[in-house]
Amino acid sequence: MRAFKLENGNIKVILDQTDDPNLIGPTFFEMTPEEFKAIYGDQEVT
Amino acid sequence: MGVVYGPKNYGLYVNGDLEYGNTYNFSAISPSYAGNTSIYSTDAYRGNYSLKVITLNGNAPTFLSDNFVEVDTTQYYVFSLMGRTLARSSPNNYHGQGYTGIACFDQFYNSIYIYHCYQGNGTTLSRALNPGDSYAYITSSTGWNTSSYYYYRHLMINPATHPYYSTPYGYTRIGGGDYDIFYNQTITYTGTDYRLTLENYAGTPITMPNIGYSLPIGTPVFNGLDGSTFNYNINGGYSTFTGSWARYTSGVITGTSSDYSTAFRQGTKYIKFMMLPNYNVYTEATPPTFLLDDMLALKSPTSRTYTLP
User: For a disulfide at B232, which of B14, B20, B101, B267, Cβ 3.0-4.6 Å?
Assistant: First the structure.
């Protein structure tokens, strides 16, 4: 899982088969920091 | 003549051959920084110019064409590009590479994700679903995902009276997009039907929003499963560019379905060229630099292959 802070303050999360083998290809999500914390806890955001 | 030829030389991507001599239509990588795409005149596959692509280390960039291309999903399309590595990475000496294909958009220019596409698990509401309800009841749960991953558990709805999303098991943004509605991974059999507990992506219970359309018994619903933001359809999805020019091409793309190797997504009206440059080598201190040329979207009324120059 990769997580990057965007200029608008949100976080871009990218998942692929290395995170979840059922994913077809890279999958992007944009969420607020609060939403990110609710799902991914304290995982690193670069 | 079967093929529709586009601006400048051929194909539907404006300036796909870069012969405008500038980065028109291919200027934006997001997140962006100065010079991530630039015109390159020292080497081109064909003509005088190619596109030089540099990625910023670690930012997982997305590269979309600036312009939308209107498509007719009853026609047959092939997507193609030429690529070659200009400078390999450091320290691991990787070639330039990336996922390549198209991004699909609806008639209102909304991005279409794969969870908007029907994937064979359609059923109907077994009870009316009203604003404020905490549960939705469905006739069958066969094929409905119960994993811990929220992005596989969209409840997608086709309201019969909706002007755009009424086609049973067709494109809809009710459940993902206009209204995000997920269901809890525990699906309860009541003895006569199946109860879904409505929640948001984080697993917090929600109630049914007022979508403005009634949802009586019999309303078609399906389980929307995410899993691929774009249609990675060129060269089987991922290309590694060697030091010599080579062509990378999709299969024939027609119709709409969740199969991105053969079809557009349901609801597609427009597309953009798409690439995730250097996706698998993003940790390199110096990412590889590569060239693109002849980015093509070819349209034909019949299924055909091309012998491209």
Answer: B101
At A41 the three-state DSSP class reads coil
B117 class by beta-carbon count within 10 Å (0-12 exposed, 13-18 middle, 19+ buried)? buried
Alpha-carbon dihedral B21, B26, B30, B34, rounded to 10 degrees: 0
The residue of chain B with its CA nearest to that of A25 is B228
Interface residue ranges in chain A relative to chain B, Cβ cutoff 8 Å = 2, 4, 6-7, 12, 14, 20, 22-29, 31, 35, 38-39, 46
Cα(A27)–Cα(B216) distance, integer angstroms: 33
* CA distance linking residue B131 with residue B113, whole number of Å: 25
On chain A, the residues whose CB falls within 8 A of the CB of B274 are none
Q: pTM of the full predicted structure?
A: 0.93
Q: Do A23 and B58 touch (CB under 8 A)?
A: no
Kindly report, residue by residue over B217-265, the tens digit of the pLDDT: 999 999 999 999 999 999 999 999 999 999 999 999 999 998 889 999 9
What are the structure tokens assigned to A2, written together? 């990769």
The beta strands (E) that lie in chain B are given as: 29-30, 37-40, 50-53, 62-64, 69-70, 76-87, 97-105, 123-124, 135-138, 154-157, 174-175, 179-180, 182-183, 188-189, 194-199, 220-224, 238-240, 246-249, 270-277, 289-300
- Phi then psi for residue A12, to 5 deg, are -95, 120
Asked if B152 and B225 touch (Cβ cutoff 8 Å), the reply is yes
The ipTM of this complex is: 0.90
SS3 (DSSP) at B12? coil
Flag whether pLDDT at B1 surpasses 60: no
Q: Which amino acid is at B28?
A: A
Instruction: List the pLDDT tens digit at each of the 46 positions of chain A.
Output: 889 888 889 998 999 999 999 998 999 998 899 989 988 888 888 8
Q: Are strands B174-175 and B179-180 parallel, antiparallel or unpaired?
A: parallel
Specify the pLDDT at position B309. Answer: 77
Query: Under DSSP, is residue B180 helix (H, G, I), strand (E, B) or coil?
Result: strand
